[in-house]
């Protein structure tokens, strides 16, 4: 069975073809250059660019997979930006109607969690952390479609904090890769950044204070030297990584889970990977990160969920709609 996965939830137009569970192609047309000019994503512009890119993205994904026939489409219906989601959903409905094939509505967070199954067969139960530009959600995954929310951010998402701090330091969007690179030459102990909710009995997160601490320090300094920038980036990154790792181990203690799956754009972070791999190896906990391309928004993870949820496929196209605040 050939499944086309489509994701237009945010600022990347992403399409992929899966042959059952095997990835045949994965195409992403990003919009970074345009949004970088505004320092962040402009939803209206994102939607317009999705509209221009989506046909080409699907054609490329099918050509790279070497297929002309698709048997089923999975499309992200939410959560995400309404204007962006609408483009993918409307395109998918038209595509399916024209070809007389069924459609599966896919939750974007569920897709990030299941991206790992494109590369590994992870046994249940496991902890799943989705850390992206829009989400910081921690789940206990007990089995197929059995997700228990343990905690989430009370304010900014982890990726959002990376993007905001990058901007404060004078760099462009997206900020995560910039901070990751700058941190390699900086001192992680240069700035003492507060770890929010550390002493509380919670599995929630809070990242807005981190950004404020950096903002205050940057304003105090006035002019930033290259060394200062690297030191601030490294201290900020270390505080985020530290909070994430501590929260994951607290969740492992509470639930008894011995496996962890990390997903979303922030899962590309090299320091997070290094610290978590080391800590998990000491505690004999298995930790899984998808390859970087499958951490970022992509159509492959959407197709994977469509394959797993194929019993939910429908020809009733009008029952499918964009749901920007969809829960898992
Ligand atoms: O999953 P994703 O592609 O889109 C959303 O669903 O939001 O994640 C994008 C986020 C951005 O905030 C970006 O700055 C962050 O992932 N990101 C990173 C890294 N690469 C991307 N954050 C930290 N370190 C990275 N290397
Ligand atoms: Zn995402």
Beta strand %: 15-25%
CATH class type of the largest domain: Alpha Beta
The string of secondary-structure elements, in order, is EEEHHEHEHEEEHHHHEHEHH
State the share of residues found in helices, binned by percent.
40-55%
SS elements, strand count:
10
Mean pLDDT: 96
Radius of gyration: 20 Å
Major β-sheet annotation:
5 strands, mixed
CATH 2nd-level architecture of the largest domain: 2-Layer Sandwich
Overall morphology: globular
Count of individual helical segments = 11
Q: How many structural domains can be distinguished in the coordinates?
A: 2
Q: What name is given to the CATH topology of the largest domain?
A: Nucleotidyltransferase, domain 5
Provide the CATH superfamily of the largest domain: ATPase, nucleotide binding domain
Strand order of the largest sheet: 3-2-1-4-5
Structural class: alpha/beta
Low-confidence stretches: none
Give the structure's gist in a few sentences.
The protein has 328 residues and is an alpha/beta fold. It has helices spanning 32-36, 43-65, 82-99, 108-114, 158-168, 175-183, 208-221, 226-255, 270-283, 292-295, 299-308; strands at 2-7, 12-19, 22-30, 72-78, 103-107, 126-131, 136-143, 146-152, 259-263, 286-288.
């Amino acid at each position: 069975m050939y499944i086309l996965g489509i994701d237009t939830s945010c600022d990347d137009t992403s399409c992929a073809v899966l042959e059952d569970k095997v990835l045949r192609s994965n195409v992403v047309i990003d919009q970074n250059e345009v949004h970088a000019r505004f320092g962040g994503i402009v939803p209206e512009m994102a939607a317009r660019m999705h509209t221009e890119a989506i046909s080409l993205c699907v054609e490329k994904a099918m050509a790279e997979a070497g297929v002309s026939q698709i048997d089923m489409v999975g499309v992200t219906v939410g959560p995400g930006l309404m204007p962006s989601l609408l483009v993918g959903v409307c395109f998918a409905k038209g595509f399916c109607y024209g070809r007389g094939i069924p459609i599966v509505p896919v939750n974007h967070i569920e897709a990030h969690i299941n991206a790992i199954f494109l590369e590994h067969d992870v046994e249940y139960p496991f902890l799943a952390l989705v850390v992206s530009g829009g989400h910081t959600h921690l789940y206990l995954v007990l089995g197929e479609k059995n997700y228990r929310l343990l905690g989430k951010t009370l304010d900014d998402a982890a990726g959002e904090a990376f993007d905001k701090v990058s901007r404060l330091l004078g760099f462009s969007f997206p900020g995560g890769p910039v901070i990751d690179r700058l941190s390699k030459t900086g001192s992680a102990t240069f700035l003492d950044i507060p770890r929010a909710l550390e002493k509380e009995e919670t599995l929630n997160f809070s990242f807005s204070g981190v950004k404020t601490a950096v903002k205050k320090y940057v304003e105090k300094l006035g002019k930033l030297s290259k060394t200062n920038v690297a030191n601030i980036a490294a201290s900020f990154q270390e505080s985020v990584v530290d909070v994430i790792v501590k929260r994951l181990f607290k969740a492992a203690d509470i639930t008894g889970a011995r496996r962890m799956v990390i997903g979303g754009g922030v899962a590309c972070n090299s320091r997070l990977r290094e610290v978590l791999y080391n800590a998990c190896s000491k505690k004999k906990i298995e930790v899984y990160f998808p390859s970087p391309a499958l951490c970022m928004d992509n159509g492959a993870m959407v197709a994977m969920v469509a394959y797993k949820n194929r019993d939910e496929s429908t020809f009733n196209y009008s029952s499918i709609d964009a749901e920007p605040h969809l829960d898992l």
